[in-house]
User: Fold this.
Amino acid sequence: MKNQTYRMTMLFDFYGELLTDHQKEIYEDAVFNDLSLSEIADQQGISRQGVRDTLMRAEKTLQDLEDKLHLASRTLLLRDGLEAVCEQLQRKGLEEQSQQIQTLWRAWEGE
Assistant:
């Protein structure tokens, strides 16, 4: 379950802006604000089932986008590959080059 939550959070980071405002708000309340279905339902003026259905549609949309575009999985592959390269550079005493790669990666991630 923890891996699924991490995966869906990552997909939200990549594709969340493509959800409807309603889906985005409910997803953020459920996942990031840790509100219960009842709390969200009261806040939104809809039923718990309506909240659940909206969450399911949002997750399906996020997964469908990843299935078509593969942005999240490609990013993870790139990150893992760069980490391996940095480790090899460090083992060879090439700290400066490793640091340059890490700096570029952080800039690419928007940190």
